[in-house]
Amino acid sequence: MTETPLEMQRSSRSPDVVRARLGDWLRTQQPDAEITDFEGTSANGMSSDTLMVDATWTVDGIAEPHRLVARVAPDMHDVPVFPSYDLTRQFELIRSVAELTTVPVPEMLWNEPSAEPLGAPFFVMSRIDGVVPPDVMPYNFGDSWLFNATSEEQRTLQDATVDLLAELHDMPVPDFLDFDEPGDTALRRHVAHTRAWYDFAARDTGPAALIEQGFDWLDAHWPATESATVVSWGDARIGNVLYRDFRPVAVLDWEMAGAGPRELDVAWFIHAHRVFEDLATMLGLPGMPDFMRREDVVARYAAASGYELRDLDFYEVYCAVQWGIVYLRTGTRQVRFGERQMPPEPDELLYNREPLERMLAGTYF
Fold this sequence. Notes:
By secondary structure, this protein is an alpha+beta fold.
């Protein structure tokens, strides 16, 4: 049986060193700034380092507290999920979302593209209060605020987040968002970008047969037509949203953002819940089978956007392939930090191996 992913180490950086260096840098922005509290967070996500910072500095002659979040590109020695991290691109995209939509995002304060201050590029944004559906343990395993909510509250959260996707997809697509890989459509370039990501991951593990079969399946089942190109959040899942009263107050984690069809985000939104549901089934847990059902999400998106989604089986298989690459990297990171042994076959690192096998065999949906 595949072992269940629990808490795992993400970074080898010294918190004390990072705090001191970040304090020095902050004083280049606000000369009298002092950090009063500092901690990393590992609540959700497996990629950039997220630092929670309380600081004070003077505004109009009065010392005021400021609650900040710094997102720092990971150290390449710590087996990051992605081959590169363009934090300036993320910074500019979040600012564009704030300017052009009502999708809630944090206020972007400063972008530091140089690695000199902290050893890697980073940006700083305001901190927003809210709660996140947990990844560890997954919210649908029981004993989480979302699991314990009423069905009406769960539906409020689901529908409000789908509405957010529909609005995001209506904003103009910034030129910098399209991927550089070859391809005659945005979806072709998107998949080529993912293939390059897999090639990067496989350097440390060797070829993962199931992921390669997944790419072959995508080539053989390519949609006859693609919808218009929109801003794709990329990691469109409820674990990347802060909520208050079951409504979104901040959309986070834009590392996977790109340009592509609407179905990319909606399929990811649905599939991210399926990943946790498949794990719950494997462990004999009841899960949340009535939450985030495809038919409900599709109907809400159509009502909010006026667009009828197509070819969702294709896009969900594509999501599963991408999740497999994430697991390939996070499994390799566990090996790096001594939390597991490298298995004989790379496919054994894939927590979604059995569902992906069924997708490719045509027995999953």
